[in-house]
Amino acid sequence: MSRIKGVFATLKGRRAALIPFIAGGDPGLSATVPVMHGLVRAGADLIEVGMPFSDPMADGPTIQMAHQRALGAGATTRAVIDQVAAFRRDDGRTPVVLMGYVNPVETMGYEVFAKACQAAGVDGVILVDMPPEEAAEWRDCASRAGIDTIFLLSPTTPAERLAAIGAASTGFLYYVALKGVTGARHLDVADVAARLAVVRAASALPVGVGFGIRDPRSAAEVGRFADAVIVGSAIVERMAAKKPIDEVLADVEGFVRDLRAALPERVSGMSS
């Protein structure tokens, strides 16, 4: 069983998984592995690591600036993969998903990228700007390497595409709770819950919800019905604080611990 599948199987009926996002290489490559371990200590069930890119069009200003800081510090796609490999020396249990854009992966080559991810211990990949209709080559490479391909769904995804996206995905589905970019703040929890019911009718995969979850309260609200709660911009904001890196990492770890504590436990045997 893959690490991703194992996490969702273990938590099913108990609580939502907590998935924090960080930008790989932000504010410097030397911070990436320590913050990943800190996220695990704080209760992260799975970690998303962003691959730096010069034009992260789906991201809001907070994560765009994180990409710029990472690139300025010398981070590359290969360097972020190497950080995952370093993390794996001490943690063989926590799933790691890389999130990024197609251009750097195409530049490296799908097969080369997939094999590098496999060797480093990457469990899944999200390519934000790759629709399933154009993903056959990547999906083949990922499948051979044992890497899950995770696609995004949005509030505007037509009903007829839900099943197709679900069929093309492995690991879990990433539901973008808001129209717009990361970091937006207007989360309609009731609307997201209703939409997830439609998604689940089209796919049996677990569904993680991201965009708009910024604090323990919103994490708790979404955690009542989602299979996973994904938090990015609120963590990346803390990584950008202008204070000593040890203080930054402690702040991030404390915030993620608060998120984890807020996730409601479910009645034993209740379907997620």
How many domains? The number is: 1
Quantity of strands, as a count: 9
CATH topology: TIM Barrel
Low-confidence stretches: 180-184
CATH architecture: Alpha-Beta Barrel
The averaged pLDDT comes out at 92
Overall, the morphology is globular
Helix content: 40-55%
- In whole angstroms, the N-to-C terminal distance is 20 Å
Fourth CATH level, the homologous superfamily:
Aldolase class I
Description:
It is a single chain. The protein has 272 residues and is of the alpha/beta class. The protein has one domain (3-262): Aldolase class I (TIM Barrel, Alpha-Beta Barrel), CATH 3.20.20. Helices cover 48% and strands 13% of the residues. It has 12 helices and 9 strands. A 9-stranded parallel beta sheet has the order 5-4-3-2-1-9-8-7-6. Helix 7 (136-144) links the parallel strand 4 (124-127) and strand 5. The protein is globular, with a radius of gyration of 17 Å. Mean pLDDT is 92; it is low at 180-184.
Q: Concise description?
A:
The chain is α/β, with parallel strands linked by helices and 272 residues long. The chain is built from 12 helices and 9 strands. The chain is globular.
Write the layout of secondary structure elements.
Elements: H1 3-11, E1 17-23, H2 29-42, E2 47-50, H3 61-72, H4 77-88, E3 96-100, H5 102-108, H6 110-120, E4 124-127, H7 136-144, E5 148-149, E6 152-153, H8 159-168, E7 173-176, H9 189-202, E8 207-210, H10 216-223, E9 228-231, H11 233-239, H12 245-262
Parallel strand pairs: 1-2, 1-9, 2-3, 3-4, 4-5, 6-7, 7-8, 8-9
Helix pairs in contact: 2-4, 2-12, 4-6, 5-6, 6-7, 10-12
